[in-house]
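Lecture notes, continued. The same structure-token format from the folding unit now serves as the input rather than the output. Read the line below as a description of shape only.
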């Protein structure tokens, strides 16, 4: 991931509340630092360990296209993937149908 992708503004109040509501997902992170979690960390943990209610709420907060963009960057060929294989399969199929574009597909 490029450095420019890591530069972002503070999390929205909605995302901060979401992180507080499900803070048990990030049990190993000190409470003071949880609200500042990157979108990448939030997406990875929610898609891997969350239920459908959590995923739906994440989509409402970040948008399906943004979540798909993060997911595809995290599962790109040649990268170490932290997602469970069934999760990768499910969300590849889901985003192919519901996200604006699939970055794994060449657009020439």
């Amino acid at each position: 991931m490029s450095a420019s992708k890591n530069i972002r503004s503070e999390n929205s109040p909605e995302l901060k509340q979401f992180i507080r509501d499900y803070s048990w997902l990030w049990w190993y992170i000190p409470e003071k630092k949880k609200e500042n979690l990157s979108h990448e960390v939030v997406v990875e943990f929610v898609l891997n360990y969350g239920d459908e209610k959590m995923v739906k709420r994440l989509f409402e907060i970040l948008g399906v296209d943004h979540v798909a963009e993060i997911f595809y960057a995290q599962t790109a060929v040649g990268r170490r993937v932290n997602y469970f294989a069934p999760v990768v399969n499910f969300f590849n199929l889901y985003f192919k149908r519901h996200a604006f574009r699939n970055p794994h597909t060449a657009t020439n």
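Point for the exam: The chain has a mean pLDDT of 87.
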